[in-house]
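Students often ask why we bother encoding 3D structure as a string. The short answer is that it lets us treat folding as translation between two languages. Here is a chain of 248 residues written in the first language.
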Amino acid sequence: MSEHPEETGADPKFWEEGPTLQIGHPVFMNYRREEFHPPFALMEEMIARLESIENEGSRLPENPEWAKKALRSIYALVDELGSQIASGMSCNAGCSACCRVMVSTSSVEAALMIDRLSVEPEDRKESWMEIVRDRNARLKELAAKTSPPADLSTFEGLLATCEDWEKENLPCPFLGEGNLCSIYEDRPLLCRVCWVLTDPEDCNPGAGPPVKFRTKVFEKAYFVVRDISRRHLKNGSVSPIPWWLESH
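And here it is in the second language, the structure alphabet:
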């Protein structure tokens, strides 16, 4: 399978958003001036594992259930890498700054979140959906202000509205008590790879922007998830989390 974004249906602009540090040096220092050694051997192994998932998906006929199983494998993989790099990052439980930005989500990621909603108690589900409807109403207002009006089922539409959305400083519908995620096990890929190297103060509204940690593992995972969505759910688009949930 090709790794070129234009051939996988992924969006090359995604990895150009904001200041980032592509890790290629054996050692670097974070904002606390602590040395950090990226686990390069593990990262190479993970690229191979992602390619194996990608190749398996390309050989199979359309199979949404396989797609969701594959996504969970990808989640486990990036979480494993996350556990290896966390000590060098600025992020901690309860920070929640990244829970107030626009998260582009694929159809297979949305399918897992919708499955999660289906097993929740009705009162909790309705509480979440009330927030989802409120967020979507605001998203529509912001999209209508662009020229032409932004299509929030496209990556271009997300780019056109994301800056205004972040100024709203509205939390994700699933941000719960203690600023912790209420669907942590089923949160989207971007929530799992949003690691920051700079001072946490840079993540506050109006500050920063923070410098994000990027690796080829996270990039490859993003492209594979998009490819799986196109092949097995016949929908390669990306949309904000609330957009998917209210439409299903």
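Translate back mentally: The first strand starts at residue 20 and ends at 22. Keep this in mind for the problem set.
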